[in-house]
């Protein structure tokens, strides 16, 4: 049943939307292919915002934001061939360009990207319902990530600009590109997490096929011209359309060298199997997660409540790094819930542009029904919603629900809910928590809340071999971007962060010769007269 109080949080009509955040529908009829903005006259997909407006009968309807091309296998293969031609088996303009040259192109791109900030931030709000503060932060963090990546690449290149002499061999070791990259980003961080793979792969000299996410696709449109005018033709090519139609022919061609995906492990498995030569495919992926927090008997509950609140419900819990299940020692479970439940209920629901809004409309149309099913399943098996208003819904607005006690057999115990439901499990022995992580299909992060150093240390040692990051008295999170971001089991493949991503999208290559006077003369002439971009002692400042 629709909650009328929640329904009243949506604008009554267009005039209820502040002028700065109103948006005219953007009907995209272009896509980037081989350095050109190609016109599209075929079918399109309409984009409806999770932000609703009442119709003439007073029923809430998602607002139309615009539309984008639904291209097919033919256009996907054209994009692939453009990327293959631009790479040209490593002989193309981009892979053979100097590191300094590639950095210069990227700096040009950033300048043009900044010009589109207001529109992109607005589209993040309208397409996926992220609040204004977080949408702005996503854009700013992406810009910072690009500059940090450039600085790190300069350092890496400086460190490899010298020759090494070992065992009678002179050599220079640098990093070289891998080839054609198929990049697929997620809807929850459609700009930032897409670019944390796109930017390092481009900088390392690869050429790109860029598939936009289903939700959060239009926000990339204002940036296509920046890509087109900043890089040589064929370096960046956009792909639109249904993944089931456009991705299989690309993967089956065997011409993709790197698959980078932020999404589900099920999709990742399907895509990898379609490649005819898996030994030639490198995969760099961030996938499912069921990050767990454990609250020990001696935990500072004020800290635990504060961090779990952020960890479970930032952007409605729609983060792979969100805490998706809380284990609390039975001796403090009642007190934790007495504090945590009201704190959850106090979070302000509303429209993304409203100051202080913490709970916003959900972009996936089917998500509210799925969340309701999870709650019903838990209730049927003995759990209850323990916070006031938890689970109330009005179209795309869903009030967070704290569900307790959750146990094995309930959907919430194992499934990644990816939304504003917080399952809470009571435990008596830490071994129960460890066993849960051992038997879980996921292995991204975990959080420990406690003050007893012996108890914390006892958990750290097994947990670091079960997940990729252990947070002490802190929420699970990706940042800072200089820290490694990866996971075990079905949660990830490869490592992402600033430096790790540059390494992931490249391979170490060496030029070597015997330490003789004749060979030294050859090297000196090549380097001294700048005859090679790879074999060089140029120092980037």
Automatic annotation (TrEMBL):
Q: Which Pfam families match?
A: Aldedh
Is Oxidoreductase one of the keywords UniProt gives this record? yes
Q: Where in this chain does the record put each Aldehyde dehydrogenase domain?
A: 62-506
InterPro entries the UniProt entry points to: Ald_DH/histidinol_DH, Ald_DH_C, Ald_DH_CS_CYS, Ald_DH_N, Aldehyde_DH_dom, Aldehyde_DH_Superfamily
* A GO MF label: oxidoreductase activity, acting on the aldehyde or oxo group of donors, NAD or NADP as acceptor
- What keywords is this UniProt entry annotated with? Oxidoreductase
What highest taxon heads this organism's lineage? Bacteria
Q: In the record, which residues are listed under signal peptide? A: none
Q: PANTHER family this protein is in?
A: SUCCINATE-SEMIALDEHYDE DEHYDROGENASE, MITOCHONDRIAL (PTHR43353:SF5)
The UniProt similarity line reads: Belongs to the aldehyde dehydrogenase family.
- This chain's protein is named NADP-dependent glyceraldehyde-3-phosphate dehydrogenase
Q: Which organism is it from?
A: Spirosoma terrae
